[in-house]
Amino acid sequence: MAIKIKAVERNVSFQEGVEKWAFVLQTDLYNKLSASKVIQEASLRSGIPKGSINAAWDVIGEVIKAWATEGHAVAVPGLGTMRFGIRSTSVANVNKVGTDLITSRRVIFTPSVEIKDELKRTSINITCYDRNGEIVKRVTSSDDGDVEDPENENPDDGGGTTPGDNQQTGGNQTQGNDQTNGNQTQGGGTVTPPPTGDDDMGD
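Below the sequence we write its predicted structure tokens.
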């Protein structure tokens, strides 16, 4: 298997009347697979009736949503963990702290080691299209296969934490950092907001 990438020649200039053409990479995605298709395939591979898998699928989804809204990082079977968070601005005056500092709410997914290893092993095929939509070149990736690691990237960023027991998910969870913004994550306890940047909700 391989990840398919398109390199499309586009005008990347932001000045009116000025052209600056460059090849821009983007993933070439297939159609989104429906839940019923996934359930059918899982049934064929496991021998478990579709009705049973469908019921488990629905219940797991409800459990993940319920626990994530309570501030837990919840395991997604076979994939990793998911939690909710926020992006926010910072203020020096504590009297100005309020929800108006929140710029957006986020869903943060941390892939499992197995998923990251699978991605690292997967080759990348690039098809290059010129500005007229014609294929001009095909490239097979020779990159190092580096995968972003949200658990280990920028370990000193994101402010301090006080770990604690998470009774609902069975003990202490692993602390780590969200790679996209340097937020620190943990399963239980309290989080001291970082002085600048983003903070996580419900940790």
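The mean pLDDT is 77.
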